[in-house]
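Lab notebook, design round three. We kept the backbone fixed and only want residue identities now. Task for the bench partner: fill in a sequence for the structure below.
Input structure tokens:
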């Protein structure tokens, strides 16, 4: 089906976000805004309780406003406006080079924006004085390449950041780490080294590592693109479970079937702009814009 052989790029863009090894506690208060996965089928009927509406109105975890990003004279993002609601899963698709990774990286300040704003729970994270460790604790990221530390065990990889950042005691981190490893199906690999794991297992460890910081939002940048085909499914299953658990997520993916299945909304980007977005079934079946049609005709 999709023989997307253009996996040439990106290898250089895989900084690790194991949230900086500063200190800082950043008591990321658990915002219990109730899960408002609005199904969109409630079109303003008057019997919706008022409180629910308020939750929907204030439901955006992420708001991107007129975001521009240039590298030298290369204008990569040319005015992106985007929201991600609480508990929402968005899939970002589009041709290679369209700025998908750059956009994700701007959402947790792995890149400085050139202009525009990114609000996370109302806080503008593009401002000078923001605490980067705190941002990256709240927004976990998983890359195509997992960047595990080879000399550490799986459990040590998972517990490193929360312990270094003073978020959890060693004992608590180990307990939480084991819990997360079992959640990604790797309980029995706690003492293994990354070299003893398959690609799919390594990526599941990387997901557990990101979850160890208790993020409120998770970003996935082509998390399955570097995997052998037979390992894609096990990683998608972990992402699917996370989506079901109500995690707010943005997925950049080449897996169109997965995007259609898991995402609440699909965003099609090309040449640094959001060309079209909408309900996955609708967008895949009935793309309105010429560039979307053209792209989908190549990948579906
Ligand atoms: N750190 C960087 N320095 C210079 N150019 C970059 C950097 N990161 C990305 N780019 C450029 O930005 C453009 C978009 O890249 P990227 O966001 O990786 O696209 P995508 O993820 O959609 O394939 C490309 O032209 C790429 O070369
Ligand atoms: Mg990319």
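Proposed sequence:
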């Amino acid at each position: 089906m999709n023989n997307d052989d253009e996996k040439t790029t990106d290898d250089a863009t895989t900084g690790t976000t194991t949230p900086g090894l500063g200190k800082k506690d950043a008591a990321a208060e658990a915002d219990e805004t109730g899960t408002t996965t609005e199904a969109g089928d409630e079109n303003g009927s008057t019997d919706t309780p008022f409180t629910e509406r308020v939750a929907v109105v204030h439901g955006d975890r992420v708001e991107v406003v007129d975001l521009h990003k240039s590298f030298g004279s290369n204008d990569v993002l040319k005015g992106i406006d985007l929201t991600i609601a609480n508990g929402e899963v968005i899939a970002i698709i589009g041709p290679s080079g369209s700025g998908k990774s750059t956009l994700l990286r701007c959402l947790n300040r792995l890149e400085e924006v050139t202009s525009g704003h990114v609000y996370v729970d109302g806080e503008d994270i593009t401002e000078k004085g923001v605490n980067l460790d705190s941002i990256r604790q709240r927004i976990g990221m998983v890359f195509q390449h997992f960047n595990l530390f080879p000399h550490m065990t799986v459990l040590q990889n998972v517990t490193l950041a929360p312990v270094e950042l003073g978020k959890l005691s060693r004992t608590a981190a180990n307990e939480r780490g084991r819990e997360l490893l079992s959640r990604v199906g790797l309980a029995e690999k706690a003492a293994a080294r990354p070299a003893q794991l398959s690609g799919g297992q390594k990526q599941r460890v990387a997901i557990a590592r990101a979850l160890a910081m208790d993020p409120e939002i998770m970003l996935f940048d082509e998390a399955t693109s570097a995997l052998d085909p037979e390992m894609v499914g096990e990683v998608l299953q972990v992402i699917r479970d996370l989506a079901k658990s109500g995690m707010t997520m943005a997925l950049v993916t080449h897996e169109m079937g997965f995007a259609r299945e898991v995402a609440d909304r699909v965003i099609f980007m090309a040449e640094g702009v959001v060309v079209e977005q909408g309900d996955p079934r609708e967008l895949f079946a009935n793309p309105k814009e010429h560039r979307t049609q053209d792209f989908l005709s190549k990948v579906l």
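Keep this in mind before ordering anything: Strands lie at 60-71, 74-85, 89-93, 115-120, 123-124, 139-142, 217-221, 248-252, 265-270, 273-278.
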